[in-house]
Amino acid sequence: MDEFILALFGENDKLRMNTLYQILVGKKSASMLYYAYGHQLLNIVGIFPHLSKAEYEKIIQRLVNQKAVVILENELVRVKIIPSLFTQEPYCHLNHFRLKNSLTLWRMLQLFLCRLSYWPADYQGPVLENSPFYLLNVDQMIAQMDEEQKQKIHEELSHVFSQMPQDQADFLANTFSGKQISGKTFYQVLPEDLHSPFDICYTLACVERFWSYLMTHTELVLFQLFKPFILENYKQSMLVTRQYYKFGYDVEKIAQIRGLKEGTIIDHLIEWAILDDRFPFEDFQLLTQEETLLDYRYKDLVEENPEISFLQYRLSQIAILKGRDNYE
């Protein structure tokens, strides 16, 4: 884990110690999401939900003892520089914030494909799952099948895997079971030189690369089958706020309709802006798009310009970051 933490710095010379912990465990807030987005850490939000604060602090202390980082005013300042996690295959394809349930989706896909290999005959294979969640949902998928869809699914799988490096495609494909094959566990097919937590991250990166491809090709049968479960990754309350906004309501009215605080609605809009490249920034009166705005605290800015709202301030910063990403 020590090396993993160092690999998260990337182009950042320092990271907030407490905020980094919130990112790793997925303790979500609008301010944490903005920080994660601005420091290229959004794709690992919630990657270690069971990491205790005590264990995290032990890791940081080890890094301090190794003189790999120093702590200044609750910020981790790196001393030892190693390659960024996000410039390496397959970790550059981690997409965990948008696909928190990626492994659940994969288990469902494994069961579905195994059942599909027997279809239209009755399933005579091994018991892969006992959970009603998987069994009932896969039953519904199989009930929709016809020969044309079955053929399309096989073609789509081949196509998606063809878009990945051979070793990653093989890693995933070897976990599938069917009428004439018995799949292996991720543990059995992981590269031998990986140690924790890179083994977990390798699995997540490959799986999330697969689902991310489907999310950008929504015409595929596979995406349509799994769409309801993919959408579960998005905060439902935020989606409701987004819908009301699209109906033409402003923050105050949405808060009244939903019985929520205006600050909560603002947080929803900020999360939407971070997640959606098609967010309607043009609807809002943005501030300057000069990068110097990224260095301003809202408290300091509003002292000079009291009329500036926090939503204006934060959306302007997100727009600058998105513009930077698009340019790069």
Automatic annotation (TrEMBL):
InterPro entries named among the record's database cross-references: Helicase_HTH
Source species, domain of life: Bacteria
Stretches assigned to the Helicase Helix-turn-helix domain: 237-293
Pfam families: HTH_40 (PF14493)
Name used for this protein in its record: Helicase Helix-turn-helix domain-containing protein
Native species: Enterococcus cecorum DSM 20682 = ATCC 43198
